[in-house]
């Protein structure tokens, strides 16, 4: 019974992804809601990757994210770019790279290939 259920679930999921309709403009808008906080993990990983302690990086990213989360027209990216501790660790180009959507999409083809789509 478990195998039959698993087979059914996999078929349903494959059909869902195969027939998925993506509205690029809506996705871009949603990624930039709340001032671009969706990119906070990339910023955190970049800071840690450059040698900052994880706890320190987390505190900086969390403070910047929370300050922009509920502000209409909030701009997480600007807050990060202006933060002196971030500036001392990351270059402007490295910060800009954290806010590129390409990182979220880089394995998309492999996912589709694994699903046989």
Short summary:
This protein is mostly helical and 117 residues long.
Poorly predicted tracts of residues: none
Number of domains: 1
Give the CATH H-level superfamily. Fumarase/aspartase (C-terminal domain)
Structural class: mainly alpha
The average pLDDT value, as a whole number, equals: 90
* SSE succession: HHHHHHHHH
N-to-C CA distance: 27 Å
CATH class: Mainly Alpha
Describe the structure.
- By secondary structure, the protein is mostly helical.
- The chain has a single domain, classed as Ribonucleotide Reductase Protein R1, domain 1 (Orthogonal Bundle).
- Helix content is 70%, strand content 0%.
- Helix 3 runs antiparallel to helix 4 (54-69).
- The protein is elongated and about 55 Å long.
Key phrases:
117 residues, mainly alpha, Ribonucleotide Reductase Protein R1, domain 1, 9 helices, 0% strand
């Amino acid at each position: 019974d478990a195998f039959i259920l698993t087979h059914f679930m996999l078929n349903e999921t494959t059909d869902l992804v195969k027939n998925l309709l993506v509205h690029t403009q809506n996705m871009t808008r949603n990624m930039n809601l709340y001032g671009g906080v969706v990119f906070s993990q990339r910023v955190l990983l970049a800071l840690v990757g450059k040698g900052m302690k994880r706890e320190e990086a987390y505190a900086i990213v969390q403070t910047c994210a929370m300050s922009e989360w509920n502000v209409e027209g909030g701009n997480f990216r600007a807050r990060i770019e202006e933060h002196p501790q971030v500036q001392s660790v990351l270059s402007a180009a490295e910060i800009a790279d954290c806010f590129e959507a390409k990182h979220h999409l880089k394995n998309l083809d492999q996912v589709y290939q694994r699903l046989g789509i």
